[in-house]
Design a protein that fits this description.
Chain lengths: 204, 471
């Protein structure tokens, strides 16, 4: 499988709201599992139920967005618990979300996204609003995210996005799967450990 | 130019700079539990990898464990399955497991410090966001996702960005009835739940200097609730007194050398910070959260803030919070009826937390209000043992609290302890997110153990200083 993430295209799903925590993305009762299988169906389960009770529909249940592979969010997305079940539920939902654009992300969520090969570029509030409105108006609109050019476009309009050099490089080169790269420094790892006072018995 | 503790510890653990510009960082201590580790072991095995430093990973079970009886098999099949998986994985890979049947188990962030595993100057990680707790010892400690747990198992290292450092200085003496929990809730209220993103928090000033290790842990525990992945307090004599003699602490001649090393890691007087904020301890009163994020809080004598007190940007989540909690702006927080009172969690489930509540209750013939379910869940078997030896269980049960077996319990309700329907809980835990305590409509108000005890007795949110005559 090609692991590079350079240009990603697809329909998008807008999810409005700041501070959407990982307890909301996947409630704790679904963490009782030893795999990540099947989590996609339970993404935002309680938020879906809550809205349903009010006669409303959550974006993740809205048939208009069922084909989406791009998720658009607001601020501090994925805050709270470190549970990887949250991004795993999102990537396993529907056709599989493979990129998340947002005004900002909680750090652990962001880091886990990188480890899973799911870029989380940042956009301004203004761009978030424009993208969300565009896909709400036309859910079939294709959103194109170009990490190389740091740009996102929809309905003929192109906007800037930001992504730090480090993660961007790992996506462009396909080197985001960290284990292999970390392991390649085996000797340096052992050497670093041997220098640590609490490993070498405070030998100085 | 001087350096901060963060920089010194980070540099010491940097294996190399990666081609991406990020760093590969060695992890001195890796803690695991049953919820976020099984998939990591599966991934490891899928890739035919082994654990590189099994002696640097320690395991326990905390999230799913029932607190009524720890007898096996657990009634809940899925919980039992997770436990079996953890036993199998730790055995197979030679990882030390603090097991319930040996009465060694506890919340992962309680047993690390308790065993002396958590030490100054270490890098510490765990598939759990409240790993920030261990920063109380002057360690860099942070939560990670499961794929990163796999990386740590395989390589004992992680891909990390360098964080900025914000020094949060609090000076002055806390008033009677004001605790470490109030200090951290106050800081989060002032800096917001996103304020710490991209930062490590360095807690400094004489208020933190005067705190016990347990109190410092309460503060560091909630760093993540302010968006900061890690937070730390400089190691000092209080730290060393706590550590000395513990199972995994340095011994004999190593002890003096360790202390010298730890002292050298303290932030230099001329260290440069990316940001500095200062607060006055005298301004802090008991804090209660009223909303659905830990920053939505108010002083106990105050009222629920009105919408005009927030920026345009925050208004949406504030309105969502009023609605979810069924609170009106301007309403007094005192007098809010509660259904459940919970004392426990990695924030406030240590022996000193229980001791303080016992001190407040003892000899006053106070009883939990009828209709309120109140329970105390010790953070570990060790905490429970100490509590029993001191007769605390009796004080609690006499007052009408249930005294349970150790675990995470109602902090996130993955075990049988849950809110029902719209129930409202006064809780010493760290998250008041929607549905956090097990009912999708359940409501949580976070506060100190003394405030939870006061609420349990009155059946409503009350000022603990008045209930217990703390002056
Ligand atoms: S007590 Fe709560 S916050 Fe702490 S580790 Fe357990 S579930 Fe997480």
């Amino acid at each position: 499988m090609d692991s590079t993430r350079i240009v990603l295209k697809g329909r998008a799903i807008p999810l409005r709201g700041n501070d959407i925590d990982t307890d909301r993305i996947i409630p704790a009762r679904f963490l009782k599992t030893v795999t990540f299988d099947g989590l996609g169906d339970h993404a935002f389960e309680d938020d879906k139920l809550g809205l349903k009770a009010e006669g409303k529909t959550h974006a993740f249940e809205d048939p208009r967005f069922a084909e989406a592979t791009v998720l658009i969010v607001n601020k501090n997305f994925g805050c709270g618990s470190s549970r990887e079940h949250a991004p795993q539920a999102i990537v396993r939902w529907g056709k599989g979300i493979n990129i998340i654009l947002g005004e900002s992300f909680a750090e652990i969520f962001y880091g886990t996204g990188q480890t899973l090969g799911v870029p989380c570029p940042q956009i301004t509030s203004d761009v978030a609003e424009k993208l969300m409105s565009a896909v709400e108006t036309d859910p079939s609109a294709e959103v194109t995210v170009d990490l190389e050019k740091r740009a996102v476009s929809v309905a003929g309009q192109t906007y800037a996005l930001s992504i730090p050099d480090g993660p961007r490089k790992s996506f462009l080169e396909g080197s985001w799967d960290s284990t292999g790269e970390l392991l390649s420094a085996r000797d340096a790892i052992r050497a670093t450990a041997a220098r640590l006072p609490y490993v070498n018995g405070y030998a100085g | 130019m001087g350096k901060t503790l963060y920089e010194k510890v980070f540099e010491r653990h940097a294996v190399r700079q990666l081609p991406s510009g990020q760093y590969q960082l060695f992890m001195g201590l890796h803690l695991i539990h049953e919820v976020t580790s099984p998939q990591a072991f599966s991934m490891l095995e899928d890739r035919k990898l082994t654990v590189m430093f099994p002696e640097r990973t320690f395991a326990t079970v905390d999230h799913i464990i029932p607190t009524t009886s720890q007898l096996r098999p657990y009634k809940d099949d899925l919980s039992e399955q997770m436990m079996v998986e953890l036993e199998k994985n730790t055995k197979k890979h030679g990882v030390r497991f603090f097991a319930p049947d040996k009465a060694e188990q506890g919340i992962v962030h309680v047993i690390g410090p308790e065993r002396g595993l958590t030490q100054p100057g270490m890098t510490i990680c765990c598939g759990d966001s409240h790993t920030s707790t261990h920063g109380a010892f002057g360690a860099l400690a942070f939560g990670i996702g499961t794929s990163q747990v796999r990386d740590v198992l395989a390589t004992q290292t992680l891909t990390m960005d360098r964080l900025k450092v914000r020094r949060i200085e609090v000076n002055g003496k806390l008033g009677p009835g004001v605790y470490a929990k109030d200090v951290i809730l106050y800081i989060i209220q002032k800096l917001g739940v996103q304020g710490g993103v991209g930062f490590a928090y360095e807690y400094a000033g004489d208020t933190f200097d005067a705190m016990t290790m347990d109190e410092r842990m309460t503060v560091c525990n909630m760093s993540i609730e302010g968006g900061a992945r890690c937070g730390y307090v400089q190691p000092d004599q209080t730290t060393y007194d706590f550590l000395k003699g513990r199972e995994y602490a340095p011994k004999a001649e190593n002890w003096e050398r360790a202390v010298a090393d730890w002292n050298s890691l303290r932030s230099d007087a001329d260290a440069v910070y990316d940001d500095v904020v200062k607060f006055d301890a005298a301004q802090i009163e008991p804090v209660v959260t009223w909303g659905i994020t830990p920053s939505q809080s108010t002083g106990v004598s105050s009222t629920i803030p009105t919408l005009d007190q927030f920026s345009a940007d925050e208004k949406g989540s504030i309105e969502e919070a009023y609605q979810y909690m069924s609170f009106s702006p301007g309403q007094a927080i005192q007098g809010t009826k509660i259904d459940v009172a919970f004392i426990g969690s990695c924030t406030n489930g240590r022996i000193s937390d229980l001791a303080e509540v016992v001190r407040l209750l003892d000899g006053k013939n106070l009883k939990v209000k009828e209709g309120v379910r109140a329970f105390v869940v010790p953070g570990s078997h060790e905490v429970k043992r100490q509590a029993l030896a001191l007769g605390y269980d009796k004080v609690f049960t006499d007052a009408g609290f249930e005294f349970r077996e150790p675990g995470c319990s109602m902090c996130l309700a993955m075990n049988p302890d849950k809110l029902k329907g719209r129930e409202l809980s006064a809780s010493t835990s760290n998250r008041n997110f929607k549905g956090r305590q097990g009912s999708p409509q359940g409501r949580t108000l976070l506060m100190s153990p003394a405030m939870v005890a006061a609420a349990a007795i009155r059946g409503e949110i009350a000022d603990s200083r008045e209930v217990f005559d703390q002056h």
